[in-house]
Fold each of these.
Amino acid sequence: MTRCEVLIVGAGPAGSTCARLLKRGGLDVLLMDRAEFPREKLCAGWITPAVLEALEIDPEGYCRGRVLQEIREFRTATIGGKEIVTSYPNPVSYGIRRWEFDHYLLVRSAARHRLGEPVRTVERVADGWLVNGNIKAGLLIGAGGHYCPVSRALGARGSTEKAIAAQGCEFCLTEEEVERCGIPAGVPALFFTEDLQGYGWILRKGRYLNIGLGSRETKELPRRMAEFCAFLQERGGIGEIPHRFKGHAYLPYGNPGARRVVGDAALLIGDAAGLAYPESGEGILPAIESAIMAVHTIVAAHGDYRQKNLEPYAAHLAARFGGSAGNAATPAWLRHYGGALLFSSKWLTRRLLLDRWFLHQGVQPLPLFDPDRPAATPTIQKQPT
């Protein structure tokens, strides 16, 4: 029998961050994931400087032997429309490869881990949880993405959930293909549907090309993906796309069927809790911030993980991201006029679409957990909507 105080299911950015900070607080942590690491992970693969700050990552150190592509420019349009170029004097994002990034965070967490082991059974027992019949934990944390088995065990998945579906791929170009490629490195191109209910992207990170599309109209995703690829071919700059697209789903925060994130001796973080930004679909920064908020709550509970002592975590999420289901939708006035209005204005494109929705500029970072000064109620500033 393996015993730990905290078992975290899912070793992605949320799980690894949570494990690292809990170990900093002196807790015995075990990380569990069904995948072996490094692993393939579908994601557009860019992060803002806020992610590096929240994770205490030095860019110069991280980029040694890993991809960290500076992003200072965006191209945005409706699909088939006139593109707007928006430039910044300094890096406002970085392109990463998720298999490198996630593995880096896992190793840095220095937590005990069991990889390549799926969760088969989850049982509530008198003094905590029993997982797979041989792992005993006082506190169970679900960090395993949209289909996290912990969220299922808690009955946290709502019948009215409206997930966003995405398909994408990332592949390495040969040196010859890099020379022929008309896609500049470090310049994401974002192409939105007219009703702003989805968008496609293409981003080159050195020799790696990432292509994908996400949509609220999940049943239409395969058709829209095929049409988007045809559009990219017609637009030029790329040859044939040699890799099959893989899909995944996620919940935007404020979804009408929002998940219950806290239970007795259990809580959910990251995509398992349904925390992706509604407008951009980004999940990495919300995942990391949810891990930080969870750690503050867990340490303040002093080993008593009854639900009432974990409820402050749900309150922290609401304070940070807002508690209204309306946050999951694009503003009604903008949906009415559609993408044509947004992309006819360079000012709106920069200030609303990029600065606010994608780059989250002006948002104050969360206080990191400090074992010498553990804060039971950290000051959490609400993000602007």
Note: DSSP finds twelve helices and 18 strands in the chain.
Amino acid sequence: MRARLLRGALLALIALGLMTLRVLWSSHGEWREAERCLAANDPPAAVDHFGRAARLYAPGSPWVERSLGRLEEIALGAEAHKDAPLALLAWRELRSSVLATRSFYTPHPALLERTNQHIARLMAQTEPPSVAPGAKLAARERWHAARLAQDDAPSVLWSVLALVGLMGWIGAAIGFLLRGIDNEARLRREAAIGWGLGILAGLGLFLIALGRA
């Protein structure tokens, strides 16, 4: 039983490593394609590929940070050349990329705040007057900034509790297999009941917390 669990854990680690390598390889490929598009003077296509590279997140990946930096460079350059459509495209892609990789916390908070400010200003400057007739530019910018600042991220507390429930559920299941069943595949009554209750408690916490997160 223990040998089978160890083999299963080893296979899971190998699968995780292969998935990570696949993500890194794909992110690098999107980065290279984005640079090729820039060299071909096709900034919109480059924005799209940099966004994809940034979304393909893996711990320690250099392509995520570089792609976010390049998106900011494109956006600032477009603003300097008064190209509002391209600037908005790049800022929005940057914002989407940051939000797409958040979990129980939002990465790059300073970059996200800066991005929201640029989007709010550009939206206020480029929207047609009929959207908010009579409203001053600063008021329109504040309105957009407030909408962009709204955080729909999952609750950190409930997300953590969901992870605790998940780990408790898995740990109890492993305990049930190791301690609740003997070598002849017969139940050890007291141990099986204890670990079974642990499975139910972990699963219940996981489902409740996931629903509230």
Note: The chain has a mean pLDDT of 85.
Amino acid sequence: MILRLAKWLAILVVAAPVVGSAALLATGNGFFFTALARTYLAGEPTANVNDHRVFATRTIASGAAQPWPEHERFVGDALTPALLSSLETQSGFAFLVATDGKLFAEHYRLGYAADSQTNSFSMAKTVVTLLLGIAIDEGYIDSVDQPLIEFLPEFADDPFGREATVGSLSTMTSGYDWDEHYYSPFSPTVELYYSNDVTRFVLGRGFSDEPEERFYYSSASTELLAIVITRALKRENPDATLSDYLSEKLWQPLGMNADALWHTDDSGMELGYCCINTNARNFLRLGQLMLQRGRWNDRQLVPAAFIDLMITPNGRPSYGYSTHLSVDQDPSFYAFRGHLGQYVVVVPEHDLVLARLGEQHDRSGNTMSEVLPFYVAEALAMVRAESAQPVDKSSVAPSP
């Protein structure tokens, strides 16, 4: 009897993976295998800031580098005790501050450095909307009010899809049917991240709400926007890609210090809602561009009026066009935000930009009302400190 039972258990152990695999494939959940290969089999419990190593990527080419000028009171890696404690307890690995257009502070830990290339996660949403502003300015797209179906005819028979506009994808008010959940293995967000064909996946769903009626933060909406921009560009150049457009219109004119990598699916479509991999100095520079209302070295890279649109509440007080807003704080600020605590924060009143990157979220409070205001307050305290003096530059990572 015991031997017979052991035999059946052995059969189950062998058969279960086969049956389970067949069931996953039969139910359209084959992305589980990709997710497993890129997380647990790669030694990680979940998506992480270094996972460009296990994704297909496309290069965002840099040009001639424009090093950050150092502030005359550059403090190097000498952060406030409160900031150092926060980074230590919340697994933050980079904290940079720029004021007056110059680098004021730069701190790294956990083995990361000035040239470490890490994942933006959803900070890429703001970058894609910057590209939208450029594409409109260059005539590839008429306006934020252009009907979505002019680029995505797949939704022509969808009653709500017919009413949605290009801009509503950026403001998260398109009414697209979605469940933004990062940790359930059955969430469409997880499937989107590990899908081998993101275009087919997002175009295969539909709209559940009247456009402009409700705000719902949705990674799929930004992926749809990335597809819109890509299709608009391909009307003139069939070989156009989002990465090349970012390189030509922003990465090279901004003088980024290194090539970046953008995750793609198996077909080569960028994961537009996330996953631009670069270093902290380059993330900080994107914030500086926003602070300067799209202008860089006497060139208007993004129309100033479009930057103003991005940082004006639309759909809800805390969100504009792919930009997180905190208009009721003193001082007010706006931010790029990404999974696991990737932040670029712009404080116009004080000509200040900061970047915080990390391996996990700062869970010490609400992000917009507590965490980011804390970072802003500490950065301002450093800038205002009368005792701030230049440090020995030999102890600071060299400029790129």
Note: Residues 1-27, 390-400 have pLDDT under 50 and may be disordered.
Amino acid sequence: MSGQTGQLTRDTLLRGVFELSARDVDLAAAVNRCGPPPLWRRRPGFSTLVRIILEQQVSLASAAAAYSRLQAGVGRVTAKRVAAQSPRHLRKHGLTRQKAAYCHDLARLVESGQLDLWSIRRADDAAARRTLLEIRGIGPWTADIYLLIALGRPDVWPDGDLALMRAARQIKGLRHTPGRDRLRRLASAWRPWRSVAARILWHHYLMARRHGLDASR
């Protein structure tokens, strides 16, 4: 994890794509096939962190459906509204027992002032990640996705992301889908643009699925 606090913009994303393509012929080929990746961003804050928690170990479609049910039940997803619900009531809105507890705990921390999400925005990568990992229900993948997608940090690698593993297998022409350790070693060559590399791989994965290519093995 780097100590950066900068935020990707469209210009810096394209700069990262250019530099990675110059260093890695496989990433360059992926960019030539699919084009530069979008600058996927979400607004930093409580609702985005809740959504990423809901995305743990499920498809994006399943997580979006769960978030929609939560919205239908509580209205705008804020710490105050979620903290006012008991975990049992959150489960009535379609959340699992575990994720209802995680979201409720997070809401109470934010609402009580014990967790200041604004301070996380100003912290460097390592400090922001440490703070997030202290929260029950937030593991390394969740923390890294928040830094990458919500805070726009340029050099974050979300360990254990299945889509990245599958895309790396295709892009690198590997016989088997790489595990997290092997993929972490591959990603180390992409510093200080690991977030950009992740976007290139995600973009390739989504384009392959859209066109019916094998992105699942």
Note: The chain has 13 helices and no strands.
